[in-house]
Structures are given as structure tokens and as C-alpha cells.
């Protein structure tokens, strides 16, 4: 049985790594690993971390490439690999351009697709953009839908997906997170020093395309919080997008208790999350990971495709409204009971056995 796994971004790499590692435990599976290179440097770090060597590196990215051009190149190159390998089954993950192109290319060749992390929805096709449309389109193509939660299953059922093809398995990111969090802390001396200064650390990340025009509000909120609380510091692994860097430098770049650092490798980022007091983010993956470490998350977005965390109480939507961010951060800083309640809730996104469930299901399918 030949199974092809297609991915290209750092989050995808983190989340498919447990599935690839699990397949390696089964001699009957011939695993073909396709890295499109949508995120090159950041993804290479993840592959090294999980000791994964791709069968193919497609290197699709070019400077100034539009989304349309990227999708076109992805479909062309992935299709050629599928023609060469003739897999029995294709895994794609999540909601990136690689996800859609991989699923579409497999569909054209009439190869069944398994969608890992299926059923996430905001039902707003422009938030997040273009991820919401990518995952909806893949939902029409996939044969098997590996949904993290029952809420995701409900979303798929509303779209008339056959219940027999939906499998609630948890999220593979928890498998990866638990693997890495148990390893020895490898943070830099500088970060270890910052984290040992008896200040409460807010971890900040921003990168969403739809938030670019509103980031000044987020950064002004950070400025106000550090002005009000001398025992608080902010660590901000800042995205390489020059727009984000320019706005951050303008508003909080001179703040001595806001530490702008380069993006971290995944292993380091996990250990930084473990030591944060709370997290402000517009990332999707962090919304799943941080609750697994008992860290409250304020989501700097107006919508989330992970409402389970909001309903459970591990996540709180604050958008990019300056006053709302300040209000909720101050509540968690000033009210220990509220903080303990939010940090003590069980993670709704899985227990660390998702990859095993997915691989066992596919093995049974081909018996």
C-alpha cells in the first residue's frame, strides 16, 4: 500500500509529522513524502526536528508570486509526482494552498484523499483568507475526513458529508506538542535569562493577512499593558513580513519590556509557550497547542474555526480592538481565580493518540 503525504508549510509539517512517523512503524506502508516548499527555511527546521526526509522537494516558491500563480505551479508539480508514484491514497492537511492543490491533483488522478484536520469552519470565505475556501474545497474532494472534534464533524454533516466518512480523532498537533514538550529545554541563554527575571510573560504572535491593517491597535494595547504592569514583559517572535515589522517597531520597538525576537524553531517555541503566563495570537495552531500546556489564549481575530476552545473556555476572542485586548489581559493579570479557571480547563483538541488512529483507519480501509 503506497500512501503519499503532501505538505509545504511549517504548521503542516508539524501536524503531519506524527502521521509520517506512525506510518514508518508499519512495514506494509510504502510512504511517499512530498514537500512543496511553500515555507522553505521554517519547514526544513521542522523536518530536521522530527527526523523526516522528503522523497520529493518541489521548491515552488518564487519572489512576488501571486496566489493564483502559486496554485498553478503547485498543481502542475504535484500532478507530475502523482503520475510518477501512482499512490493508492493521498494525505493532505489543513487549509493551505498546498492542501488544496494536493487534494485537487489527487482528485484529477482519481486517487482517494484523506483530509487531516477536516471540518474547521468560520463560514466567512474571507476570514481567514484564503484558508477558509481552501478547506471547504478540500471538503468536497476528500473521501475520508479526519476531524479533530465533534464540532468539526457537525460542520461536515451540515455540508452533506456522509457520516461514515467522518472520523473524530483529535488533532495531530497535540501528538507533536507532547513529543516536543517532553524534550530537554533548548532555549537560548538570552531567552532563559528573560524567563527567569520574575516577570509574567505575555507571548505575542501576529501574522494573519486579514489583520495587517489593524495591527497598530494590537501593539498599542501591548504598550498600555506594559505601562500599567511593571511585573509584565512581552516576548514577540516577530514575523518576517516587513509590514508587521514596520508597525511593531513604530509602536513598541523602543519599549524596554517588549522583546522583539526573530521567529523561533518549533522546539524552542514550544518551550517558550510552556513558560508564558498567557498568549495573545492570531495563529490557528497556537489555539490548539497552548491549552494542552495549560496556557490561556486571547485570540486576536474576530472569528475562529476552533470554537471548541472558546466554548470550553481555553480561548477568548478579543479581535484587534485595543480596549478589548487591554480589558481581558488586565482581568487575567489581576484576577487569579479567572486565570486559574481558564488555565485549568482540559484541552478539547486531543490527547496525543491521533496519528495512531488515522493510520490504523487507513490500514483497515485497504485490508
Automatic annotation (TrEMBL):
<dbReference type="InterPro" id="IPR029767">
    <property type="entry name" value="WecB-like"/>
</dbReference>
<comment type="similarity">
    <text>Belongs to the UDP-N-acetylglucosamine 2-epimerase family.</text>
</comment>
<dbReference type="GO" id="GO:0008761">
    <property type="term" value="F:UDP-N-acetylglucosamine 2-epimerase activity"/>
</dbReference>
<dbReference type="InterPro" id="IPR003331">
    <property type="entry name" value="UDP_GlcNAc_Epimerase_2_dom"/>
</dbReference>
<protein>
    <recommendedName>
        <fullName>UDP-N-acetylglucosamine 2-epimerase (non-hydrolyzing)</fullName>
        <ecNumber>5.1.3.14</ecNumber>
    </recommendedName>
</protein>
<feature type="domain" description="UDP-N-acetylglucosamine 2-epimerase">
    <location>
        <begin position="22"/>
        <end position="362"/>
    </location>
</feature>
<dbReference type="Pfam" id="PF02350">
    <property type="entry name" value="Epimerase_2"/>
</dbReference>
<keyword id="KW-0413">Isomerase</keyword>
Amino acid at each position: 500500500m503506497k500512501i503519499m503525504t503532501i505538505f509545504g508549510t511549517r504548521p503542516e509539517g508539524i501536524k503531519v509529522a506524527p502521521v509520517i512517523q506512525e506510518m514508518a512503524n508499519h512495514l506494509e506502508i510504502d510512504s511517499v513524502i512530498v514537500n512543496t516548499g511553500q515555507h522553505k527555511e521554517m519547514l526544513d527546521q521542522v523536518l530536521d526536528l522530527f527526523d523526516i526526509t522528503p522523497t520529493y522537494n518541489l521548491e515552488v516558491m518564487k519572489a512576488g508570486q501571486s496566489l493564483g500563480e502559486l496554485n498553478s505551479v503547485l498543481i502542475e508539480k504535484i500532478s507530475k509526482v502523482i503520475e510518477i508514484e501512482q499512490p493508492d491514497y493521498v494525505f493532505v492537511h489543513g487549509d493551505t494552498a498546498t492542501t488544496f492543490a494536493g487534494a485537487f491533483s489527487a482528485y484529477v488522478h482519481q486517487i482517494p484523499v484523506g483530509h487531516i484536520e477536516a471540518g474547521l469552519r468560520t463560514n466567512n470565505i474571507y476570514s481567514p483568507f484564503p484558508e477558509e475556501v481552501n478547506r471547504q474545497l478540500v471538503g468536497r474532494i476528500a473521501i475520508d475526513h479526519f476531524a479533530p472534534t465533534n464540532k468539526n464533524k457537525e460542520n461536515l454533516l451540515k455540508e452533506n458529508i456522509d457520516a461514515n466518512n467522518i472520523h473524530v480523532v483529535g488533532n495531530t498537533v497535540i501528538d507533536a506538542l507532547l513529543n516536543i514538550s517532553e524534550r530537554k529545554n533548548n532555549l537560548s541563554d538570552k531567552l532563559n535569562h528573560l524567563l527567569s527575571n520574575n516577570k509574567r510573560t505575555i507571548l505575542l504572535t501576529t501574522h494573519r493577512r486579514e489583520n495587517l491593517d489593524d495591527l497598530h491597535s494590537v501593539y498599542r494595547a501591548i504598550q498600555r499593558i506594559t505601562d500599567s504592569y511593571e511585573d509584565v514583559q512581552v516576548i514577540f517572535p516577530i514575523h518576517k513580513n516587513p509590514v508587521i515589522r514596520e508597525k511593531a517597531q513604530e509602536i513598541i520597538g523602543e519599549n524596554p519590556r517588549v522583546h522583539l525576537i526573530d521567529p523561533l524553531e518549533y522546539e524552542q517555541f514550544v518551550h517558550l509557550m510552556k513558560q508564558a503566563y498567557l498568549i495573545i495570537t492570531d495563529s490557528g495552531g497556537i489555539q490548539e497547542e497552548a491549552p494542552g500546556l495549560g496556557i490561556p489564549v486571547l485570540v486576536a481575530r474576530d472569528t475562529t474555526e476552533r470554537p471548541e476552545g472558546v466554548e470550553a473556555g481555553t480561548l477568548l476572542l478579543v479581535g484587534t480592538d485595543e480596549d478589548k485586548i487591554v480589558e481581558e489581559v488586565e482581568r487575567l493579570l489581576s484576577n487569579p481565580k479567572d486565570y486559574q479557571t481558564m488555565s485549568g480547563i482540559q484541552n478539547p483538541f486531543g490527547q496525543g493518540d491521533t496519528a495512531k488512529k488515522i493510520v490504523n483507519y487507513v490500514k483497515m480501509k485497504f485490508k
